[in-house]
Amino acid sequence: MLSFALVSGLALAANIITNGLANRLFFSVYKGSFTDPLFYVRLFGHVLGHANLEHYTGNMILFLLVGPLLEEKYGSQRFLSIIAIVALVTGLVHIFLPGRSALLGASGVDFALILLASVTGSHSSNAIPLTLIIVAIIYIGQQVYQGLTTADNISQVTHIIGGSIGAVYGMAVQRGKH
User: Fold this and answer.
1) Measuring CA to CA, which of 12, 14, 50, 171 is 20 to 30 A from 3?
2) Is 130 helix (H, G, I), strand (E, B) or coil?
3) Could you report the per-residue pLDDT of 157-178, keeping only the tens digit for each?
């Protein structure tokens, strides 16, 4: 978990040193050729890339607050699989959406962790936890609203997908324990 924050920091440093080349080559996903081997690196690597220090710190603060608790609860392998699933799914969705620029950053992972955390304390396998419902309304609802009303470079779709993956993953694990 700390490795993710460290590697993301190194990716940011590489991007600054190379004047954006590192993000273009490795740490952002965009429409490209499926025959390009770096396309597949970018498909997963985009969650490590950040546009600037503010973007990085915004993503890492939440990641480092929630991540250790979830990694302890679910284990390092499951935790890494959540990150990989979010990276792959959000990357694929992004390249198939029309008219999108490059996607980079860990905010989809952050949203997955937020919704996963809202399921984590649940003791019932048959009911959807109230905390999940409230958090989904607040976080996902905000993203839907912003996506409909704001024109910016933020991928609300990535946030919604990441949050959905975290919620579904958490519910599936909870059901498997009971």
Assistant:
1) 171
2) helix
3) 899 999 999 999 998 887 776 5
Measured distance between the N- and C-terminal CA atoms of the chain, rounded to whole angstroms: 27
Amino acid (1-letter code) at residue 90:
T
Contact predicate 4/53, CB 8 Å = no
Contact between 50 and 56 (Cβ < 8 Å): yes
How many domains is the chain partitioned into structurally? 1
Check if the beta carbon of residue 50 is closer than 8 Å to that of residue 105: yes
Residue-number span of the structural domain to which 27 is assigned: 2-177
CATH code for the domain of 18: 1.20.1540.10
How far is the C-alpha of 79 from the C-alpha of 77, rounded, in Å?
5
Q: Record the tokens describing residue 55, joined without a space.
A: 């973007």
How many angstroms separate the Cα of 86 from the Cα of each of 29, 100, 174?
A: 13, 18, 19
Q: Which amino acid is at 50?
A: H
Question: Rounded to an integer, what distance in angstroms lies between the CA atom of residue 132 and that of residue 110?
Answer: 15
DSSP string, 13-34: HHHHHTTTHHHHHTS-B-S--T
pTM of this prediction? 0.89
Cα–Cα distances (Å) from 5 to 93, 115, 120, in that order, read 24, 20, 22
In the prediction, which pLDDT does 49 show? 97
